Amino acid sequence: MYRSLVSVILPTYNRAYILKRAINSIMRQSYKNFELIVVDDCSSDNTREVIDSYKSSRIKYILNKENLGGAESRNIGIRQAKGKFIAFQDSDDEWFSKKLEKQIGILDKSGDKVGAIYCNLEREGDQKNTIYSPEKIMGNIHEELLKANFITLPSLVVKKTYLEKVGLFDPKLPRLQDWDLLLRLSKQCQILYTDEVLLKTYFSKDSITAKNEAYTKALKMILDKYRYEFVQKRLYSAHLLNLANNLSYEKDSGMRITYFLFQAWKYDLYNLKYGLVFFVSLFGRRIYNVFLRNYKTFLLK
Fold first, then answer.
1. Does residue 157 contact residue 116 with C-beta atoms inside 8 Å?
2. Segments forming the whole domain that contains residue 230
3. What is the structure's pLDDT at 134?
4. Same domain, 191 and 63
5. Are residues 53 and 172 in the same domain?
6. ∠ CA 45-48-51 to the nearest 5 degrees?
7. What pLDDT is attached to residue 3?
């Protein structure tokens, strides 16, 4: 039942106060053949004491000598992994007890063309919990991933051979490293999906997902990296609009907003929506933000 070893990669930085929730959820897995590799990204809190309190031979602790970021920390863990499968956990999330059992059970029976599987999840926000239910997109999903990343990293389990084939996380990206990896992975293999809710994600105020500037910088890098594919699938303008809208939250970004909206219109010249938003942006960031608040639904169509 537990033939294949799974290596669980968990990077962490100054999260000792919530780290046990994530680790406990891994240690409670019904699938027992796993190793947990915790990569401490040079924390200054009592993270080491939290790890040592488990006294488990299945937990491997790696301390970075300097702060390298989440992407490189995951890469360090992957390079040390001995498992056939690689699973990812975040220090502020929680797996349900049958997560590995369900996903490995499917992957073990899959053919060589299948490289990964992701699952449904529950999200806990500031006010209420929601079940995140992506469409049941599976198989050759590269074109769908070009539209947007709908796969949360802690929901993913990957065959290590495919990770070695496509390369690891890009540490130059301040965010969206998971989307970048999935775009490369989906070119090389099929990715499966199970609609079972197998984990819960939490929003933390100190999470990198709360940092808008890092997102806009990373999105620009992704657009540059996959520009030909986005243009080919007529998605480039939509992503440029998304980039401009995220820039609208940053001060002194008016000229950049106008530039990216002009580029969006240039690549889809007959789409009047892009012409309209470009024209509105000429009146400055504040006017553009008012327009966004009133016509967000129109822009997202």
1. yes
2. 211-300
3. 66
4. yes
5. yes
6. 125
7. 82
